[in-house]
Write the structure tokens for this entry.
Amino acid sequence: MMRRAATLVALLAALAILRVAAQTAVLKITSPADGTYVMGPVRLAVTVEPLAVLPTIREVRWFADGRQVCTAATPPFTCEWDAGEKVGEHAIRAVAVLRGGDRLIATARTKPVEYAEAVDVDVVQVTAVVTDREGRFVTNLGAGDFKVYDDDKPQRITNFAAENIPLELVAAVDVSSSMKDALPAVKRHATSFLAQLQPADQVTLLGFNDNIFTLARRSTDQAVRAKAIERLAPWGGTALYDVVIRALDLLGRQSGRRALLVFSDGEDQSSHATMPSVVQRAEASDATIYMIGQGRALRAATLQQLMKQLAAGSGGRAFFSDDETKLDGIFHEIVEDLRHQYLLAYAPPDHARDGEWHRIRVEVPAQNYSVRARLGYRLVKRNPQ
């Protein structure tokens, strides 16, 4: 009897502690974070402090722009919501209903693009990274700090955004037989790399050898990405050209940044596509391309030249190393690059849809800064209606 009484007293004390904790608990929206840019599918997520309150939450009701979009009844109380094809301002509200009837409320407000003029034509989108003389990233620039030239003719910037710009990334990992020894380290560093992206960043993960495998499609869930990477296993040849074209085709066309990361250790052996077709497809894309070459890629001059050409033409970077311990540093440099990008756009000249190569030059004329951006574009003619 005394044991039952003691248990009851302990239970009542625990409930009292939880009641007090609930009264002082704080709910916070972690995705999308306040002041970020969002578009497309977005994962809605919250945290609560103290964590002891978490088991007392019965459900979380999610609202976007005053309309309830979903209800999550089980931890971690996340939901998927489509923010639309354009970067706009949205009011996000989370209401956590506790089992005792109390409620916790959190709000977040996403940002529209900082500078935009409506245009009724397609735009040429340019992602730019700005560094000073010491190679340090330059932040806090505005649209007025940039000058953009198309075939040496100045253009009027119609769209501009800086920091926390929505990112859609396709990461393609070579899983051919030659990757057997290197793959464990690649998987470990790739998982760490993806974990450093912003919560709203969308990632499509591809594995490729003779074939191309879509392991995760536009996911914002790091757990899904990690599981997909863990499933990678080496076998077969290398279809590098095919995967670059496939990856660029998978990237969407909504406003925001697009990037492609390709990791490969050998020359193409199995593609149906040709090298010129890969170059032409990259020239028609506004994605920033990052290439990482290991193993045989260090000894294949033609492959190195292609990887450098694809990266430089897009405003990205190419890395080559046979030292697995340097992978973490390489992935970190790419993360930092992605975190310090500006997004600019302008209406293409009337004659631009001629299928020809048009040069792009981006400058910050008031300062002695270096700007890395795509070198040009190739627009195809519109089909007649």
In short: Residues 167-339 form a domain with the Rossmann fold fold (CATH 3.40.50.410).
